[in-house]
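User: Assemble these into one structure.

Assistant: Restating your components, then the assembled model:
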Amino acid sequence: MSDVALDIHPDAAPAAPPTGGGTEVIYRHRLVVRITHWINVICITLLLMTGLQIFNAHPMLYWGQYGADADPPVFGMTASHGHGYTQIGDQQIDTTGVLGLSGGEVRGFPGWVTWPSHRNLALGRSWHFFMAWLFVINGLIYLISGAINGHFKRDLAPTRAQLRPSHIWRDIVDHIRLKHPVGEEAKSFNVLQKFAYLSVVFILLPGMVLTGLTMSPGFDAFCPLLLTLFGGRQSARTLHFVFANLIVLFVIVHVVEVIIAGAFNEIGSMITGRYTIKTGDHA
Amino acid sequence: MTATFNRRGLIGAGAAGLGGLLLSGCDRLAMAPQAINIVRSAQHLTFGAQRAILAGQPLAREYKASDLSPVFKANGSLHPGGDAYAALLENNFADWALTIDGLVNTPLKLSLAQIKALPSRTQITRHDCVEGWSAIGGWTGVQLGGLLAKAGLAPTARYVVFHCADNLGGTSDDSGLYYESIDLFDAFHPQTILAYAMNGQPLTVPHGAPLRLRVERQLGYKQAKYIMRIEVADRMDHLGGGKGGFWEDRGYDWYGGI
C-alpha cells in the first residue's frame, strides 16, 4: 500500500484534466492517521463524559493550590429551592434543567452527558483512567509516527506562502463565505485548518494530559514542576476543564466544517484514505 | 390527557425515545461487569507506573504557613459516635492506647502521651479529595516507619492496616467500620506520619482525634482518622469486603495516588 499522503492514489481513476468540473481522487490520510483518529474519537468522547461524572462529585472550580467549600470558586454549579444555578465569578445564572439541577436531582451536569448517567464517581474514575491510558498510548503512536514519516512537516506545518498575512486574511474570508478550495489548493490543508489542528495536537491535548497529571498527588511528588507551571492543583483542575471545553469547541467546528465540505467525502477519506477533489476552475 | 399527534410532537418523542435508548445502551456498557473488569485493570498500570516514577521516594511538596487553607474542610465521618469513643473523648484520650500487632515481633501498646514523647515530624501539605477539592493543612506526628521498626516486622509482612473507630457505613455491626491499608513502600516514606496535631493544635474530632494517618502522596480517603489499632498483615482479603479499605470495598482503587 502506498503510504504517501496527499499523493495520487495508485488505484484511483486517471486524473481528469484540470479543466471543467472533473474530479480527482487523491490519497489523503495514511493508515496510522485514520486508525489513531477514530480511536481518539472514542477516547475523547468517553474522557469527556467520565470527566463530567468526576466533575459532578464537586461541581466547583477554584484557582490556586487549594480550594474547597469555604473558598471562593471561579466557576461552579449550585442548587437551591428547586432551581439550578451556574456561577461564573460573581455572576449567577439560572440553569435549571441543565446545570445545577436536572431530572429532579441536584447535580452539576445532566445525566445525558455523564458516563454512567447516574452518579457513580468510582466507576467514572475507573473508565476515565482506562481511557486516559488508551488516549496517551494512541497519542504517542500518532506523534511518533507523524514525526518520523513527515506528516507534521509536510501536511500540518504552514508553508511560507500560507503564512503571509494577505493569504491568512483571504483564508478567513473564504471560511466566512463557506467557500472551499478546489484543484491544487484542495490537495493540502488550508492555513486556518493547519492552525486548528496544530493547536489541538500540540497544545490542547498535551495540556489535558499535563493538567490531569497535576491533579495526581503521586505524580506531583515526582514532578512538582507541574504545580509551579499551572499555579497549583486547583488551577490545574480549572484549566483541565477549560481545555476540555476548547476541545469540545474544536470538535463542533470540525464536524460543521466536515458537513459543509461534504460529509460523505470527508468521513470516507478518514476511513479509506481516499479523498475526491474537484479539479479545474472555481466551480 | 388528550392524544394529539403532530409532526413536531412525533419528532420530539422519537428524539426522546432514541436518546433514552442511547442512554440506556451507554449505561449498559458502562455498567457491564466484563467492561468494568477491563477498565479497572488499568489501575495496575497506574500503580506500576507511579511506583516506577516514585522509586526514589521523593517528598510531596511542603507548603509555607501562609499557604494554609483558611478553613480545612472535614469530610467523611465528623464524629465516630458510640459510648466507647465518647468515654475516650471525655477523658481527653488519656485512656486511649494505640495497638500495633499482627505480623510483628513485639506487639506495642502506646498511650497518646507516649506517642507525643517520641521524635515528631511537622509538615504542611496538601490534602486532595477524590471528589476534586484540596485543602492545605499542617500536621505534626510520629513517623509510622519508626514505630514499625520498633515493633519489628515479620518477614511475611506486606501491608499496614488501620482500624478506625468510626462506623461510616452506619451499620449496627462492625461491617461499616472504617479501615484503610497501605503497603510497606508508603509506610516507610518519611512523610507518612500518625498525626496527633493539626496546625499546631491537638487534632479535633472532625479531623480524626486522637490520631490519624497522613500518607501524603495519596488521596484523602487513604488518610484514615480515629485510628485505634494498626495491624501488620500479609494480605487483605480477610478484612472487611476484602479490598483493603472502606471505600475500596465500595469501588474505589486501593492505590489512591491519582
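The helical segments of chain B are 7-31, 33-40, 42-53, 83-90, 112-117, 144-151, 184-187.
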